Amino acid sequence: MNWITNYVRPKITSLLTRSEVPENLWIKCPETGEMVFHKDLEANQWVIPTSNHHMRISAKERLKFFFDNGEYHAVELKKVAADPLKFRDERRYVDRLKDARAKTGLEDSVLVARGAIDGLGIVACVQDFAFIGGSLGMAAGEAIVTAAESAVERRRPLVLFACSGGARMQEGILSLMQLPRTTVAVEMVKEAGLPYIVVLTNPTTGGVTASYAMLGDVHIAEPGALIGFAGQRVIEQTIREKLPEGFQRAEYLMEHGMVDMVVHRHELKSTISRLLKVMMKQPAETISTVDRSAAEAHASSLADAAE
Cβ distance 112 to 143 under 8 Å? Predict the structure, then answer.
């Protein structure tokens, strides 16, 4: 009886019991519905191999993929008031901040770091959509200003990865004040004669698009990225017309002159490296026609500014 109870019954139970599978073991492609193994997707920099769909990635993963050997030094950012307006909707703003920090491991939506790409030292600034939609508040604005100051101080190019839903409503007018602040910071980099490259990722919308995200010397977008100010539905209701297919997507904006190039995530590092080496008058191994024209346009604008 003990043999049946202690051995046979547990074996039968284990066979009949459904095994628990981690929810994130397989990830579904938003475009095709294909199921992709989590580890394979991570190894491919979160790009679906078959459909080429670029998944959203965290700020820390972005820096790991971007910098040489995944090594970088995080720049210390200034502290700002956590809840200046004592805002509350369905929940208190301080509680939302606490949850976002626990979820992402970041203090706010922007991470600033120093490192090298192909041996060229740069300052990188990355927005993380997982932190309250990558929204622009006081802390994020301060981070971008710090990134610009660090770039000028160390005479390094500034590369910004934009990924945001816009201004942070919980900080009201204080959030909107970050638009002119970050614009001034970008101008400071340009006046120092340093390149400023913006990578537009999915999504880049709202006040972020209306400020520092559209002030780059070169604008690069990831394939399929949503880029715009107001949402498509709002625009259609305002103009009372149906918008064209692919409106506000990276490829559409490149065709209409708002984006300089659309670059696959795997080629971002090499493309930006070539551009920066030309802008900084350093040797570049292989320069495409598009890269060269963008770099020459930047050099021309610097010359005009000097005159």
Answer: yes
